[in-house]
TrEMBL record:
Protein name: CENPP protein
A family per Pfam: CENP-P
Coiled-coil segments on the chain, per record: 6-33
Biological processes, Gene Ontology terms: CENP-A containing chromatin assembly
Domain of life from the UniProt record: Eukaryota
InterPro entries per UniProt: CENP-P
Alphabetical UniProt keywords: Coiled coil
GO CC list: chromosome, centromeric region; nucleus
Amino acid sequence: MDNSICQVYEDEIQLLEEEIKLLTEKYEDSQQESTFFSDEEILMSINSLQKEFQGESKGNESPSDLKARLGSLETDLSFLMKFTGIQFRSHSKKTVEKTGSRTVQKHRLSGNCHSLSFQLEFQLLEMQNKESVSAVITDLSILMEPGEDSDVSKFVSSTEEHGNLLTFFRSLSSYAEWYEHRRCTFLHFK
């Protein structure tokens, strides 16, 4: 009896230690992300937000206006999802490296476009100069449903090579729409 109670406590302790470890990692990531900005930039952002908040509290935007704006944004998002057929199910981002002017983040996306599902994994390299910020996609990996035709696998390989996400999403949207039409047509004749 004593061994089983001890085991339960040890298991609980182990779960709590793992949770502490995960929370520590999240905290360190958030600290790294916040150190990317200078103190001046942070103060400017805080002042800007305070001015916006003070403007809103004076009655510039009422709760009903905010609800209407939210409804408008939801309508726009719904339209874009219907128009492109692309719906994202999950997204995760982790900062891999951060120096003064260089940031590397690892992104993972999963979603579906009409009836085709996809998963993307890539690294985003951001370099900041005095005048501008440039971003480059590296290590792009695309996973599509198995069983797609060879043209899709060639296109995916080419996209991974060039790291062009815009072309991928445009082409995926068009291909998935016609894939769905073909599938419905073949079901009609069966």
